[in-house]
Amino acid sequence: MYFIIAIVVLVFVVLTGVVISRLQGVLSSVKKPESADAVPEGNSWNGAMFIVILVAAVVGITWSYMHAREHFLPIASSVHGRRTDDLFWFSMGILTIPFAFVNFLIFFFAWKYQYKKGNKASFYPDNHKLELIWTIIPAIVMAMLVFTGWKAWSDITSDAPADAEVIEITGKQFNWIVRYGGVNDNKLGNYNYKLIDAQNEVGIDLSDENSFDDFLNPTEMHIPVNRPVLLKIRARDVLHSVFIPHMRVKMDAVPGMPTKFWFVPDKTTAQMRADLNDPNFKYEIACTEVCGQGHFSMKINLVVEDEASYKKWCAEQTTFLQTYPEYLAKVPDNLKAKAMKGLPAETTTPADTVKTASVGGGIGTSAALR
Amino acid sequence: MSAIEGMEVAVHHEEHAHHHEAQSFWQKYVFSEDHKVIAKQYLITGILWAVIGISMSVIFRIQLGMPDSNLSWLRPLFGNWISETGKLDPNFYLALVTMHGTIMVFFVLTAGLSGTFSNFLIPLQIGARDMASGFMNMLSYWFFFLASVIMFASLFLQTGPAAGGWVIYPPLSALPQAHQGSGMGMTLWLVSMAFFIVSQLLGGINYITTVINLRTRGMSFDRLPLTIWSFLITAILGLISFPVLFSSVLLLIFDRHFGTSFYLSEIYINGEALPNVGGSPILFQHLFWFLGHPEVYIVLLPGLGITSEVIATNSRKPIFGYRAMIASMLGIAFLAFIVWAHHMFVTGMNPFLGSVFMFLTLIIAVPSAVKGFNYITTLWKGNIVFTPGMLFAIGMVSLFVSGGLTGIILGNSALDIQLHDTYFVVAHFHLVMGAASAFGLFAGVYHWFPKMFGKMMNRTLGQIHFWFTFIGIYLIFIPMHYVGIAGFPRRYYQFTSYDFTHKFMDMNMFITVAAILSFLAQFLFLFNFFYSIFKGKRAPQNPWRSNTLEWTTPIVPGHGNWEGEIPAVYRWSYDYSKPGAAEDFIPQNIPYSQTLESNFPHENELIATEKEIAAQNFNDQFNQAH
Fold first, then answer.
1. Which residues pair with A165 in a beta bridge?
2. Residues of A numbered 271-300 whose beta carbons fall under 8 angstroms of chain B's beta carbons: which are they?
3. What is the distance in angstroms between the Cα of B82 and the nearest Cα belonging to chain A?
4. pLDDT per position as a tens digit, B5-33
């Protein structure tokens, strides 16, 4: 790399040399009176520069792309990610044509039609046919790109399948907290931002029985492979944005407005390690909406594993109530028994009525699953 | 009669008919109501801001490209923003990024570009004595100056200037406890922007009124140079969109100081749940981008207009597709208002809205493509003179096309999921709106410097400045696309926290080196600019052999621009290399009756109307009772 920098510096130094020599030319030419027909000052070397730069740009862009591509992200680990990647490279391929073509014309025409003595430019103010052509062709290409993009976008943002694993991720300055529905009911309980305190970091509403087996994790998110995962995204203080580069997932976290994103991861962390031949590979979740001083390091690791190890991991987690039993005090009396046992909710009232009841009785809790 | 003679006639036709009492120094150079002086004030202020804004980018590029470098040499300037060990403070990094964006977008490319050239060229090119309201025009500059002073002062606060990104999204910008840049720095930012908007509105109303009402006789809309069309459309864009930014700024001030909840809801911060509910941070983004997107074109359109003029003049050819150029600018301007939400695809807004905005966004590619191709066809079979202005205009077209194409990727909501807020976006908009507009600005300065100061800038130095800048810009921003494709997020203080950003150290260093070299190259311009004001070669009457009216004024136009009567206009401004004509240009004030050898049949018919045009004189501000 130092080598390339050296080359760049060299180019600039050479140009500086040109500057100085030209300046001397300028100084000596000051005395010469300018005649109307003379080739304008500096015209020929500037014309030549366009061709030099054109050639250098072709070489430079090709080479730098070949060099850079080995550092691009590996093949996407999610189903929609490979689709958007394909679309991206397809669009880039299409767009390379006008990029190269138009820039070639600009540089080539600049060189070709530079001032020549006795030459007269052609008076060519209009050609409706030509203009129609370059209105319609871009319009058709755009229509095609819009259509493919729109199909992908509406599939990606469609409602998550019913069997999706629902996980809540909350952003705060400066880390992420994930919450799972728990092994008994696998349903996220309600929350309310006014219930947040030092322990109850995401404001779990313990008057909702679905929350009794919820568990939190501030350092790692685990998700099962080959199954839709629905992220329920929240922010506690300012805007954040969930970014999982290897999954091609990004969605803002907005205080007061829950957002969501669902995707199907289909490569486990272990598979990635084998594929990339990198035993230390980790999926990472980053923040991409500026959120303050620690924005650049707001990270949580992501582990993708098969269904069995995922279930096992979930079972090993301690629920919020197990970690902080003192919060039992916040559970309504009629549910205390259930909270203490941590029993499954199959035999009790349907979740909907419970939710309505808790909303009516509480201080306006938000339904986590809205 | 040849074109040049015609011009002489216009210049010396009548005796100095108008006298004014001598003005004091303050009236003449400081609180001036003369559009030319105001234009220079805008230009000089813009240049000063550009130096500050670009220096900031160099500092944070050093942080990104050479994270291990010892910056303690900057401690005398920045004090404790640089730690004892020579490390940049992360908050200061964000402040630099924020101020770089604010300064460059608003103070340099909006005020410095549009303010300079709208002020300078509108009266000169449409044939007016001055702006419709010289006093409002003066106010416009001084409101901008006030905004500048406040913004500049905010740089010296203990807690630093605003630091939440130039888009100042709440709640970060609304809550002083969230970030130290959201304290006094943000207050000053908001106040400064409020004054800035006032300045833009005063200026914009003036530009629109002047173009509509004060065109000289014969200067119909279809004879206006494209520069004027672009300034007019820019002013209309600004007039409609800046008030929306004003309201969003005002509501943010309310949220910050008066306890309202326009943008705030369900927030728990610093161990405390705030009482605000019911607001929406997304509302701010909608309001902000309703300005923010037209703002892109407010910045770019003057550059495109200047480029049209400079390319036509120096190709010695009429601009290709004059009407299509106007139509595409109108199309771009209209579409600019209905695409704002493409900045918000992943904010959680309704995906259906995303589809609509994707569709509308990609339509913009069509008028933009028309413009690109029309520029190229103007070059085709020209007789190109590489003045520095021309080089920058050609470079502008290249940057506009290269940067615009990646916009087609980002406007596609499905692709934006991965690329949003990565360096791909940074590379895209720096090429298409930053560099392209800056090149438009350079083209304008080099082209109209002789008219502004009556001196020539050094041509060779200008050409060299172009090549350094042009190469430098591409060396910075092409690699930045790669960094973006690799998923590097914007506004990161350093890339050490993640495994996926643990690469491209060399690429980032390369970008930084290119940025520093391009920055240094700008001193060639600064030297050339200031040196030429005082020591430059005296400018001839019409150095670029151009058609537009400003070159019919005295070399250094005084108050009222034309001595004697304002010239009448008989033709469009692009009669370059007309078949049959002796010279390769025929200025706008030459009647068809004097160019029988080169007239087209339909133009011969227009000769009959010339007497009528010559007899009119209802727009000369000096000929009205005062």
1. A229
2. 280-282, 284, 286-297, 299
3. 15
4. 444 444 444 444 445 566 787 777 888 89
